[in-house]
Amino acid sequence: MSLALFRWSVVLLLCLFTSAAFANEARGRKNKAKTPKLVSLVGGQQLHRDTATAFQRMSQDAAKHGIELTVTSGYRSLHEQQWLYEEYQRGRGNKAARPGYSKHQLGIAVDLIVGKRTSKRYRWLAANACRFGFRRTVPSEPWHWEYHPRRTFPPVAGFNCLGRRTRPPEPPTPVAIKDPS
Ligand SMILES: [Zn+2]
Description:
The protein has a domain at 38-151: 2-Layer Sandwich (Muramoyl-pentapeptide Carboxypeptidase, domain 2), CATH 3.30.1380.10. Helix content is 38%, strand content 11%. It has helices spanning 3-34, 49-64, 78-89, 120-128, and strands at residues 38-40, 46-48, 71-73, 109-112, 134-136, 144-147.
């Protein structure tokens, strides 16, 4: 083997090893991101630990007002989401996101028992959930709330967490007009 060929072979081998190492590292990161750090709630549902902490704080506050928050669906594995999606496709069960696109798979979404939109529980959530970082994201699903602490803010005076007015707008302040005479 000539020296030039030998050098090229070494370079080629180094390239192959480096790319394999990078690929492995990337795969490792991806898998890590796919498995959220989960904790179990009292009812047995699981949530991402940060979401669980915020949810527990919200539940405790709701309990002070005589409202019990019950999670019917928290974290879902890919397998569970796949099953729910197939059921939805067959016309059974609630709307379900395509596997890989549900926030339930990240452990940051909770489905809650809310009743009608006029129920005490739903009205409490509409007024307070955003104070704990939870927001509604699916217009047709009043039970589905997601934890997005960085882009969820407490309600502005006169509005609820959903941006709806809670009291009529203030009447304009009358302007004193000077008597021209
Ligand atoms: Zn949901």
